[in-house]
Amino acid sequence: MPAVVQSYVDTNNLRTVSQEQEAIINWYKQDLGKYDPDNKLYLEAIFQLIPAELNNQNKRFILKNLNENFKFSRYANSFIWLEQAGVALPAYAVNEPAYPLLLHKSANLFKLFLSDVGLLAAMYGADSQLEILKGNTHINFGSIYENICAQELRAHGFELYYFQNKKQGEVDFLLEEQGKLIPIEVKSGKAYQRHASLDRLMNNPVYDFEEAFVLSSENVGVIDRTCYLPIYMLMFIQKKQLPENFIYQPNLSALT
To answer: Which partner from 34, 61, 145, 215 sits 20 to 30 angstroms from 232, CA to CA?
Structure first.
């Protein structure tokens, strides 16, 4: 958030920064009811639940945690509103890692990230932000790392998908790039080279992946088809754009 960054630039005071973040979070809560008064309670409950859901081992947004009788079809507009308002970023599950991913998307199975990772860290509490700055590796920052990845990939023009299968396991993100798929795993701890689900996916002869990325706080490395990158190198994972003069003229001579 620009105001948060400016507060730090002006003061270098983390308490002031934290107060700015809390003010934005409270403003979000007040604004939710203004634009969708009929579903105000659900919108606020969804927003409040995002940090806890991301911190769960599964990370998938569990609808029953809102209400035992929750029907997604009835409140789907609340999730859509949160995305369109720039508050949240959904990443949808696909049951098959095949191109195009949209054909395999599960509309009611998704992770929900915040559009600003700084606000997510603030919702976990000022102490968690301080531990990040200290470089404390004993705390699980997996949800924050994944949110960074989701936010950056969306900023680069990627749609957010992840793979989930009972036999294969779960892979954090699947990128779609010019007809090819790239699996991505995000690791916050020292055991960044342990990724059983990714290994099963890469070794499955049904799928022909050329490469996979593992993002962590460690250094660059390559093992087989898996490339290990420090998480800041997300900036280099860019969506390729068509050339400005991408002209294609079909040969229709056979029709004459």
So the answer is: 61
Rg (CA), the chain: 20
- Predicted local distance difference test score (pLDDT) of residue 63: 59
**Side-chain half-sphere exposure of 34, counting CA atoms within 13 A:** 6
* Separation of first and last alpha carbons in the chain: 60
| Burial class of residue 256 (count of CB atoms within 10 Å of its CB; 0-12, 13-18, 19+) | exposed
Angle among Cα 171, 116, 83 to the nearest 5 degrees reads 75
pTM of the full predicted structure? 0.83
Structure tokens at 200: 């099963």
Whether the Cβ atoms of residue 185 and residue 172 lie closer than 8 Å to each other: yes
What type of residue is 143? Answer: S
Name the least confident of 13-27, 68-82, 233-247: 68-82
Distance of CA 211 to the CA centre of its chain: 20
